[in-house]
Amino acid sequence: MNKRILAALLLATVPAFAGADSQWVLQQSTLTYHVSHPLHQTEGVSHAAKGKGVCHAGQCDFLIAVPVKSFDSGDSNRDLHMLQVTRGAEFPLVTVRTRLPESAAASATINADLEIQFAGQTEQYKQVPFKVDTQGGETHITGTIPATLTDFKIDPPSLLTMPVKNDIPVRVDMTWHQQ
Amino acid sequence: MLRKVFRNRQSGVPGLVFLVCLSVAIAPSLMAQTAGMGTLTGRAIDASGNAVANATVTATGIDNGQVRTATTGTDGSYKVEGLPPGNYRLKFEASGLKTLEVPSTAVDGTEIALPDEKLEAGETIPAKPTPAQQDNLPNAPSSSKTEPTLADLGLSPEQTQGNAREQALLDKRTHMLKIHQRMGLITTGPLIATVIASMGAGGKSTSTASRDLHVALGSLTGDLYGITAYYAIRAPRIPGTKKRGPIKFHEAMAWIHGPGMILTPILGAIAFNQKSNGEKVHGIASAHGPVAIVTAGAFGAALLSVSVKF
Predict the structure, then answer these.
(1) Nearest CA in chain A to B162
(2) CB within 8 A of B250, min separation 6: which ones?
(3) B158 pLDDT higher than 90
C-alpha cells in the first residue's frame, strides 16, 4: 500500500518537473538593414525589437517583433519612402519566429530556421547561421538574414529612376537574458 | 510669336500668365498616368438591407500591394478608383458592425460593379488564413502550446494594428514625390540650356534670335519648374514625422530657388523689353543675371543633396 502511495506521489511530481519551463527575454538588440543603390549605400537601424523565448521539453519557441517605423536611416524622407514601399502602415510589425533546442545557448554557432512576416508576406529562411556567445545568464547572438525585396513582394524603391538592388541583408545583434 | 508675347511683358504679369497657361497645357500628360486603372463600385448594407454610411472600404492589391480606400455615402455606395489591374482583397469596416473581408476580387482597366456586401452586427470577422500562414515548417512553433504571442511582448495597440488610411496617405505621398523627382530631373535640361543660351542673350553684340531662344528656354524651364514644385507642395504630410537628414537642406534650398524662379522671369521680361527698345539693360533688370545664377545654383544644390551622399 505504501509503495502504491509512493509511486502515485512520484508520478504526480513528474508533470510538475516537466512544466518547469525557462524563458528568455530580449534585453538589447540592433537590427540593421542594408540597401544598395548605384549612388547610395544606406543602412537603417532599429533598437526597438522586443522578443521572448519560451522553453518546454528541451525546445524553445522564440518570437521577435520590431516596428517597421522604428528603423532610422538618418533621413526622414527615405524612412517614409521605405515605410510606404514595405506597407509599414498597413503591416506595422516585422515578426520573426523560430524554434531552437534549449542546448543551443551552449553552442558557438547555431543554424536557425526562421519564419519572417513582413509587408503582409510570410517567408521562411532555412538554416541561417548565427554566432552565439553565452556569458553568465546572457547570450549574445549575431548574424545576417539574407532577405531580399522579392521575398516580400516589395517593389524596389528608386532614386533618380534607378532602383535599389534586390538584396536587403539584415544584420542581427541581440542579447538575450535567461529567466 | 514668342517675341510678341514677351514684348508685351512690360508689367511682368502677362509673362506669368503665359507660364501658367503652358503649365495647364502640359499637366494633362502627367494626369494620363492614371489611364488604364480600374474602379470597383458597390454598396454596403446591414442585415436588414439598409444602407451603411461612412463605412471604410479598403482594397489591397494581392499582386502589387497597393492600397486604396473609399468611404460609403449615405446610400451605402462606394467607389474605389485608381486600381491597377490585378487581384484585390476588400475589407469593409463600419462602427458597430462586423468587419467583412472579401478574399479576392479581380480588377481590369474598367469599372466593375460588385454585388451588395452585407455587414452584420457584432464582433469582427477574422480574415481567412493565407496559404503561407497554413504552412507548417518542420521546426515551426505553431504546434507548440508554449509559443509566445505578440501580447507577451508588451507592444502597444498602435504598434500592432495596421492603419489603412495612413498607408493610403503614404502611397499618395510617394506617387506625388516620384513625379516631383522626375519633373525635377526633366527641368534640369532646359535649365542648363537656358543658362548656356544666356551667353548670347545679353551684352552688346547679341542678336534678337539669341534672346528669343533664351526666352523660350527660360519659359519652358519655369513651366516645368512650376509643375515640379506643385507635386512637392501638394504631396501629403505624414503626421508625427520629424524631418531629419538631407531633406532639410533640400527644402531649405527651395526657399531660395522658389522665389528665384518667380523673380528671374520678371526681371528677364524687363531686361528683354529694355534690349528690344535698343536700351542698355539698367535698373532692377540688371539683377536678372545674378538672380538667375543664384536660383540655378540653389536648384542644383537641392538636386544633389538628395541624390549623392556626402
Answers:
(1) A90
(2) A77, B302, B305, B306
(3) no
Confirm or reject contact between B241 and chain A (CB < 8 A): yes
- Which one-letter DSSP state was computed for residue B161? S
Partner A contacted by B204 (CB < 8 A): no
Residues of B whose CB is below 8 A from A110: none
pLDDT, residue A11, reads 42
> Are B164 and B170 within 8 A, CB to CB?
no
* C-beta of residue A172 within 8 angstroms of C-beta of residue A145: yes
Which chain B residues are within 8 Å of A76, Cβ to Cβ? 241-245, 247
Give the span between the Cα atoms of B168 and B181, in whole angstroms.
20
Sign of the Cα pseudo-torsion (B247, B251, B257, B262, in order) = positive
The per-residue pLDDT for A129 is 96
Contact B107, B79 (CB under 8 A): no
Of B119, B128, B59, B74, the closest CA to residue B93 belongs to B119
DSSP state, residue A70:
G
Contact B76, B44 (CB under 8 A): yes
Q: State the cell numbers at B54.
A: 461612412
Domains of chain A, first to last = 20-178 (2.40.128.110)
Gap from A99 CA to chain B (nearest CA, Å) = 6
Q: Which of B6, B5, B11, B22 is nearest to B201 (CA)?
A: B6
Average pLDDT over residues B273-298: 91
B63: chain A residues, CB-CB within 8 Å:
153
Q: For B172, how many CA atoms within 13 A lie in the half-sphere containing its CB? A: 16
Q: What pLDDT does B101 receive?
A: 79
Q: Can you give the pLDDT at residue A143?
A: 96
**A61: exposed, middle or buried (C-beta count within 10 Å: 0-12, 13-18, 19+)?**
buried
Considering only the beta carbons, identify the residue of B64, B155, B163 that sits closest to A89. Answer: B163
Other Cβ atoms within 10 Å of B149 Cβ, number: 10
Report the range of poorest mean pLDDT among B96-105, B200-209, B242-251, B252-261: B200-209
The ipTM assigned to this model is: 0.79
pTM of the complete model? 0.63
Average pLDDT over residues A76-83: 92
Of all residues in chain B, what percent carry a pLDDT higher than 70? 77
Rounded to a whole number of angstroms, the distance from the CA of A81 to the nearest CA of chain B is 7
What are the b/e assignments for B246-263, b being 16+ CB within 10 Å? bbeebeebbebbbebbbb
DSSP state of B277: T
Contacts of A81 in chain B (CB under 8 A): 174, 177
